[in-house]
Amino acid sequence: MTRPGTATITAAAAPLALVNVYEVDPAQQAALCALLSEQTEAVLRHVPGFVSASYHASLDGTKVVNYAQWRGQEEFAAFMADPDNRAQLARFAALARSVSPVLCRVTAVHAAPAG
Q1: Which CATH code for domain 16-105?
Q2: In terms of Cα–Cα distance, which of 106, 95, 23, 94 is closest to 65?
Q3: For the segment 2-34, what is each residue's pLDDT rounded down to a tens digit?
Q4: Distance CA 49, CA 34 (A)
Q5: Both ends of the chain: CA-CA distance in Å?
Q6: Distance separating alpha carbons of residues 7 and 81, to the nearest angstrom
């Protein structure tokens, strides 16, 4: 069982992974992270097929990386087809200079040994 506030990455479950890299002005980094988190909590986590989302702020302030997992391509495609969701994605993009999304499948996961 996953604890609240944690996500599990596993190749066995074969989820669809979305990696979004937002290039931002450092003055916009915190605002984009906050907006992504707020909308994920309010909306995205309730969308059928959504598994998890993690947001990462680069130390130099110029990037925000979104790692999200979906059960599969069909659920993700349905999310992307919804005009309300597309409008929200446009709000995120408006805070960035550019957005580079990549859809992936998890092929392997490596971790340090226990202990």
Answers
A1: 3.30.70.100
A2: 23
A3: 456 778 887 777 689 999 999 999 999 999 999
A4: 23
A5: 20
A6: 25
Distance CA 93, CA 88 (A): 9
- Which of 9, 19, 40 has its CA nearest to residue 107? 9
Burial category of 68 from C-beta neighbours within 10 Å (exposed 0-12, middle 13-18, buried 19 and up): buried
Tens digits of residue pLDDT in 69-106: 999 999 999 999 999 999 999 999 999 999 999 999 98
CB 97 within 8 A of CB 27: no
| Domain residue ranges of the chain, discontinuous segments joined by + | 16-105
Amino acid letter, residue 16:
L
- pLDDT of res. 11: 76
Q: What is the residue whose two structure tokens read 């959504």?
A: 50
